Amino acid sequence: MTAHQKLTAKTEQARGAAKEAVGRALGNERMTGEGRLERAKGDLRAAVARGGEAVAKGKDTLQR
Known about the structure:
Layout: H1 3-26, H2 29-63
């Protein structure tokens, strides 16, 4: 996972969590849902990057 990918994923997760919290505080279901979605996108982005790392590591192991 490159530094840029980590930063993008963490930023998206944090922004989503904040939006979700504000939505709950205001009783705004739409904002809460948008925040939940944005946080999930960040989680997915991080998981994909980790999967890419695992594939690269496995490939390196097989080449030895």
